[in-house]
Amino acid sequence: MNCPICHEPLVHEGKTFRCKNHHSFDQARQGYVNVSRKQKASGDNALMVNARTAFLEAGLYDFMRQAVFEKLQAIQPKTYLDLGCGQGYYTKAFAAAAGQSYGIDLSVPAVAHAAGQDKTSQYIVGSIYDLPFADQSIDVETSIFTPIPAKEAARTLKKDGLLITVTPGERHHIELKEQLYDKVRLNPPTKPVEGFELVDQTEISALQHVDDVMVLLEMTPYFYRTPKEGIEKIKSLKDGLDVTFDFVLSVWRKKHESKN
Asked: Domain range holding 46?
């Protein structure tokens, strides 16, 4: 890890990360370290973290998590970083396939939850657009349903480093959208990642029954732009709803810099 202020290496001394210029960052009780320079709270709040945790612990995304784990297991990276790790649902599982694993997210409640559940990985409160890592120091990074910081990923990944992304497939949550909107649009194709070349891409999908549809809605972007009538309609689904979970799993390799 690098100091986010002067970019010198951070040394882990007891419960403090410190650089040679005497910038220091203390570990919280749960074990995470906060290197964010933002004063105001950012990322998911505690309510959102609890909703997402409840949904993920129901196991509906386990099949996707297993598919990504198998990719990592085949690679066996020495260093692994989960970009936008949230509450560590993926990071904790993927740590078993890596030497040293890290997770970074701006949400203090999410990272605190992650660090409390996973003592194998080092969790960091910080921005994915200002990663506290040295150039070419990470073997594999994952970005699962988070914005992709292409420049920072390219900077921190090693020469042949890999970026694994999971993005929505075209029919992801389509039954939920049909409950909310008169006209339903399919999700657009996964976009190329600047500075990376596509190595492999797989679509994985499953139709699963969701008992508490409101919990699902609360962890999606639709929740914040759904009128009151739509919310009430979802609450009325007492028998749950069969929902398509459709993912695009992509493996990208960092492009080599051209020499003129």
From this structure: 11-254
Nearest to 115 by CA among 87, 140, 76, 138: 87
Strands 138-144 and 157-168: parallel
The runs of H, that is alpha helices, within 95-193 are: 108-117, 150-156, 174-180
pTM of the model: 0.93
Token pair listed for 136 = 């070419």
Residue 6 located in a structural domain: no
In Å, how far from its chain's centre is CA 14? Answer: 28
DSSP 95: G
5 within a domain of the structure (yes/no)? no
Phi, psi of 199 (to 5 degrees): -100, -40
CATH of the domain at 64: 3.40.50.150
Q: Which one-letter amino acid corresponds to residue 35? A: V
Q: How many CB atoms lie within 10 A of CB 225?
A: 8
User: Residue 21: which of 34, 3, 33, 44 has the closest Cα?
Assistant: 3
Please provide the size of the chain in residues: 260
What is the spatial distance between Cα 124 and Cα 128, in angstroms, rounded to a whole number? 10
Q: For residue 161, how far is the Cα from the chain centroid?
A: 18
Closest CA to 32 of 107, 98, 137: 107
Q: Mind listing the pLDDT tens digit for each residue in 91-144?
A: 999 999 999 999 999 999 999 999 999 999 999 999 999 999 999 999 999 999
- CA-wise closest residue to 176 among 25, 55, 65, 47: 55
Number of domains in the chain: 1
Q: Give a yes or no: residue 169 inside a domain.
A: yes
